[in-house]
Structure formats: C-alpha cells, structure tokens
C-alpha cells in the first residue's frame, strides 16, 4: 500500500509538472534548433546572441515588439532599442524567428541588432553604437522555455549583464519586480522583452 501511495504521488507530481510546461498562449516561444553552420556564423558575427522560435497560435496577432532596456545596479536607465514588426497572414503559417545580438567593435563600442524573420523575409533594426566599459565578467541567459505569451502581454526573454562581482546569478524566470531587481543588480544589465499585439 505504501508503494502504491508513493507511486501515485510521484505520478501526480510528474503529470502536474508536465501540464505546467505545456501551457499554451496566443503565441509560444521555444528554443530554435540551428545547424552547425548557423551556430558558427552566429559566433563569428556576434559576441552574444539570443535566438528564439515563435509559433503563432492566434490569428488576431498582427504585431510583435522587441525592446532592450538598460539598467545600472538594478535601476532602469533607458530604453536603448525599440523595434516593431507587422505579422502578415502568410507569416503566421510557419514559425517565426527572433534574433537579438550584441556586437562589440575594436573601437570599444557596441551595437544591438534585433530582427524578426519568417520564410518570407525579415525586418531588423540596429541600435548604437554605445560606449563599452570593461568589467571583470559578463553573463547572459534566456528565460525558461517554452514560454507562452498572450496578446497584450510583455515577457522578458533574455538578460545580459556586465559586472566586477565575483559571480553572477542567472534568473531564468522573471515574474515580479523583485526578480527583475535581482536579475539587473549589476553594474550594467540589458533586458530583452517581447510583446505581441
């Protein structure tokens, strides 16, 4: 009887966990599978990159907005990039790709590239150049995936930090102001957000 009860508890926990990962939204963000060539090309051209696949589930979606916010020691300073792209009916038939990358040049400046791609083409923007201050370390992480997003919602999909601290903590799910403060409590932090309309 004890084995049966223990087994049922484990089964319920597994099913509950599986259900929470299968949450569906008006659009669903997942990791993008890329081949070795694409991986090498991304590494060659960028210092840091974030790449996502977005499946559109709701035909009412017509717009995606990507924003990059800049923070210093946990305090919002400015929006350094705002980019929006219309989503056509043709675009909704296949998964879209979101690509956000940081490029640093030899003159100690950086720029941020944001792009939304479909099989029918792409739209993109470049923000910068911005001066770069050297710190002891950098770190970047994306949000736990898959991630469901609904029309009108804005979700944080990635964070990049520069710090002189001995270590940095990666927060993979930012749901509150406290989470955001912890994720950006470094000398410099960049927060990448996605909104669908």
Structure description:
The longest helix has 20 residues, at 2-21. It is globular and about 45 Å long. With 197 residues, it is α+β, with helices and mostly antiparallel strands. It has one domain (24-196). Helices cover 19% and strands 48% of the residues. It comes from Cerasibacillus terrae. Keywords: Signal. This is Lipoprotein.
Explain the layout of strands and helices.
Elements: H1 2-21, E1 27-31, H2 36-45, E2 48-56, E3 63-72, E4 75-86, E5 96-104, E6 109-118, E7 121-131, E8 137-142, E9 147-149, E10 154-163, H3 177-184, E11 188-196
Antiparallel strand pairs: 1-2, 1-9, 2-5, 3-4, 3-11, 5-6, 6-7, 8-10, 10-11
Protein name: Lipoprotein
Signal peptide: 1-20
Keywords: Signal
Short structural description:
By secondary structure, the protein is of the alpha+beta class.
């Amino acid at each position: 009887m004890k084995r049966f009860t223990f087994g049922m508890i484990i089964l319920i926990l597994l099913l509950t966990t599986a259900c929470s990962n299968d949450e569906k939204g008006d659009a669903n963000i997942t990791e993008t599978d890329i081949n070795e060539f694409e991986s090498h090309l991304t590494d060659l051209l960028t210092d840091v990159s974030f790449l996502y696949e977005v499946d559109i589930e709701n035909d009412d979606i017509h717009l995606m907005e990507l924003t990059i916010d800049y923070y210093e020691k946990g305090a919002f300073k400015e929006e350094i990039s705002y980019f929006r792209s219309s989503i056509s009916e043709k675009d909704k038939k296949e998964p879209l790709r979101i690509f956000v990358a940081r490029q640093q040049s030899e003159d100690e400046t950086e720029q941020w590239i944001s792009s939304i791609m479909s099989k029918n083409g792409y739209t993109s923007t470049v923000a910068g150049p911005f001066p770069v201050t050297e710190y002891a370390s950098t770190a970047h992480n994306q949000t736990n995936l898959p991630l469901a997003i609904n029309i009108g919602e804005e979700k944080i999909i990635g964070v990049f930090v520069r710090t002189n601290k001995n270590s940095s903590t990666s927060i993979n799910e930012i749901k509150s102001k406290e989470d955001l403060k912890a994720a950006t409590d470094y000398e410099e932090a960049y927060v990448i957000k996605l909104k669908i309309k």
